[in-house]
């Protein structure tokens, strides 16, 4: 799963030469053997490396504050979102919904790696949501639809249908 | 212990004893005093009671009405107590909804069906203390006859249905007394769910209601629901009679299961067994073959389905239609949808009071429909669902969640709560459904939906004995069991179609309620057989 993400990320970044990854451990953490240094271990580490390789540092945040927010969401993806239990899904969606109330992207107004990796990570949850639930977490759905349509992002994942109009009366969920 | 101590102890003992004795004496004195007090009180009360009760003959418990006499007395209904009757002295028979005593006054709220009025009894030259006390002690739900003067009030009495008047009681008699402990409180039974949770007040759960149905049916909400249901039945009959339909009665004890063997009740029939009819289907069709052209019937339907859902009953009232047509089964669909629209209009125009009463406890959006009724093809519906992200096959039947989602999509797109879905896939319909002439995978069958839930399943029927036999064999049905049915088509049968609705389900969905047991007076389901 992580390997597919990295390959999609490479395509998004326009990196000509795809890297060869291996995995380690039961969790299948991705590993990138670097010719000029120690191996890079972990999805976030490798992704950040790829971004620097592609010379697109703005994807990690423009200001110090933005960079911190991006790192926070990347960590959230790995520690809380991956392998979360069924009970936690609603909490995660509720928190994300509240967070996205006044933001276009996770880092505010700019598209960053946080959006990409959170999108990859949350896809398997959103694809299973019923229409009524997608309306309940309206901001998550809005952000998700935006990211999945962002040029070059949605490589390996099937599109999720998001309806234009609300079909459930609001406040009656 | 030394002798001194012993002596001391002895003295102590004596002192203790005298202390004990003192205490005992005190206690006895207290007891005696209390007793004396009580006796004095009783004596005083007795005296009070014996004091001249000048109103003795203006109140009391009437002897049981055994038709002893024919009183020429007109009783006014609570709903007719309006300012026009101000200053008139009238008799009212109603139930005690609530009673509250405050010093020298007693406030009663009298109730009859959906209507309530306030009544006042005050100590004065018309009512004695004993009379007011008697009124205050009457149990809730007792039926009383009250003679009173209707008085206009300046400030509207918000809590009653008759807000502009109140009764000043002259005479009050109990016709039928209620036991003091009621199995459920009527105020609790009409409280909206949310309000109950918020204010920490009780609401009554469904099982308690159904176990004590007689009391539950007295609530204003229940009265409104069943009056509206009676309206549905009446509008159904009136509309169809006006269209030239004939009402028929079909047998409910039958020899072979009509819809399929699984969900049928068996009854012992002398030396053999018989079944309770799952639908009047076969007999409706036989009436068409007998040249009645357009028939309908209203009667019980028995389904032995072990479904414990919000919309299934084992016994319900079926309103069934069957009609011969000229060239196309859409003539029948148009007739049925027009009937439904007439029912909706009739309810909207004549039962607003009832709809508002139900909405007070169960708020919902008003029922919307289009004229002419919206008709979608099954293929379109599948496309709409797929566009909303549902994965399903083109010839797959609609599951209940998909039906509900489709209902919401249709509501959003066309703004209607009522629509018809035409041309269902043949594979999911019963054996007597006529296949589509242009596409063997589909059929001339249709379902109708209210608020996203199915209320009617219908189709053009196969009226050719040959084709019917083929279809039955294709479905693996024992031809012997349906021989009489197939035979009825051998001697000239007109093309015909029809469908049936459930009275309880239609009432439930029209009002936007959520459980069919609320619209069935004495519901039957796999777990309930009484009352």
Automatic annotation (TrEMBL), chain A:
InterPro entries: AIMP3/p18_C (IPR053837), Arc1-like_N (IPR053836), EEF1E1 (IPR042450), Glutathione-S-Trfase_C-like (IPR010987), Glutathione-S-Trfase_C_sf (IPR036282). Residues 49-171 form the GST C-terminal domain. Pfam families: Arc1p_N_like (PF21972). It comes from the Eukaryota. CDD domains: GST_C_AIMP3. GO terms for biological process: positive regulation of DNA damage response, signal transduction by p53 class mediator. SUPFAM superfamilies: GST C-terminal domain-like. GO terms for cellular component: aminoacyl-tRNA synthetase multienzyme complex; cytoplasm; nucleus. PROSITE patterns: GST_CTER (PS50405). This is Eukaryotic translation elongation factor 1 epsilon-1-like. The gene is LOC113066119.
From TrEMBL, chain B:
Its EC number is 6.1.1.12. One of its GO terms (biological process) is aspartyl-tRNA aminoacylation. GO terms for cellular component: aminoacyl-tRNA synthetase multienzyme complex; cytosol. InterPro entries: Aa-tRNA-synt_II (IPR004364), aa-tRNA-synth_II (IPR006195), aa-tRNA-synth_II/BPL/LPL (IPR045864), Asp-tRNA_synthase_2 (IPR004523), Asp/Asn-tRNA-synth_IIb (IPR002312), NA-bd_OB-fold (IPR012340), NA-bd_OB_tRNA (IPR004365). One of its GO terms (molecular function) is aspartate-tRNA ligase activity. Residues 226-531 form the Aminoacyl-transfer RNA synthetases class-II family profile domain. Signal peptide: none annotated. Keywords: Acetylation, Aminoacyl-tRNA synthetase, ATP-binding, Cytoplasm, Ligase, Nucleotide-binding, Phosphoprotein, Protein biosynthesis. It is an enzyme of class 6 (ligase). It is found in: Cytoplasm. Its main location: cytoplasm. The keyword Protein biosynthesis applies. Residues 25-40 have a biased composition (Basic and acidic residues). It holds the Pfam family tRNA_anti-codon. Residues 1-54 are annotated as: Disordered. It catalyses: tRNA(Asp) + L-aspartate + ATP = L-aspartyl-tRNA(Asp) + AMP + diphosphate. Homodimer. Part of a multisubunit complex that groups tRNA ligases for Arg (RARS1), Asp (DARS1), Gln (QARS1), Ile (IARS1), Leu (LARS1), Lys (KARS1), Met (MARS1) the bifunctional ligase for Glu and Pro (EPRS1) and the auxiliary subunits AIMP1/p43, AIMP2/p38 and EEF1E1/p18. Belongs to the class-II aminoacyl-tRNA synthetase family. Type 2 subfamily. HAMAP family: Asp_tRNA_synth_type2. Catalyzes the specific attachment of an amino acid to its cognate tRNA in a 2 step reaction: the amino acid (AA) is first activated by ATP to form AA-AMP and then transferred to the acceptor end of the tRNA. This is Aspartate--tRNA ligase, cytoplasmic.
